[in-house]
Each structure stands twice: as structure tokens, then as C-alpha cells.
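User: I've been trying to design a sequence by hand for this structure and keep getting stuck. Would you show me what you'd pick, starting by listing the structure so we're on the same page?

Assistant: Good idea, let's start from the same input. This is the structure you sent:
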């Protein structure tokens, strides 16, 4: 079984390019999932609200990944 340090190395971003790719992936997935949710719940799309929510989620992921990158084992 892997130790905590080994798992931490796996999830830690390797640089800014890795962080940006992760943030963009999350933003796209969040936008699509939230649009589907709006369609199922209300029967219509709320593109502005969904884009805002996806951007907030991506911002949180950006913050998390920057913290992980700064705390990475050297």
C-alpha cells in the first residue's frame, strides 16, 4: 500500500501548464454538468448562471492546485 507521501506526489501538479489544464478540464465538465442539471430541473438552459458557477468551481480548483504545487515535496 502506498504511503501518504507517495499519494501526495501523484496528485500534485508539476507546473503551471498542469494547473491550467486541470482548471480548464474542471471548468468544462462543470459547465456541461450544470447545463444538464438546469435542463432536467427547469426544462431550459441558464447559460450565464451556469458559466458563473463553473468559473467559481474552476477558481476553487485553481486555488487548490496552486496550494498543492507550493506544498509539494521538493
Amino acid at each position: 500500500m502506498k504511503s501518504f507521501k507517495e499519494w501526495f506526489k501523484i496528485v500534485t501538479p508539476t507546473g503551471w501548464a498542469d494547473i491550467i489544464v486541470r482548471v480548464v478540464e474542471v471548468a468544462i465538465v462543470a459547465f456541461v454538468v450544470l447545463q444538464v442539471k438546469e435542463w432536467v430541473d427547469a426544462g431550459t438552459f441558464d447559460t450565464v448562471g451556469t458559466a458563473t458557477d463553473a468559473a467559481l468551481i474552476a477558481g476553487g480548483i485553481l486555488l487548490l492546485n496552486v496550494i498543492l504545487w507550493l506544498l509539494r515535496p521538493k
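That's my pick for every position. To get oriented when you compare it with your attempt: The mean pLDDT is 90. Residues 24-74 form one domain.
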